[in-house]
Amino acid sequence: MKPNISSINSEVIIEQVDDNFVILKPSNGAYIVLSQTGSLIWKLLADGIDASNIPSHLATTHQVSEEEAQLDLDAFLAELTQRGFLLHA
Question: Which of 33, 44, 47, 61 is 20 to 30 A (C-alpha) from 55?
Answer without folding.
Answer: 33
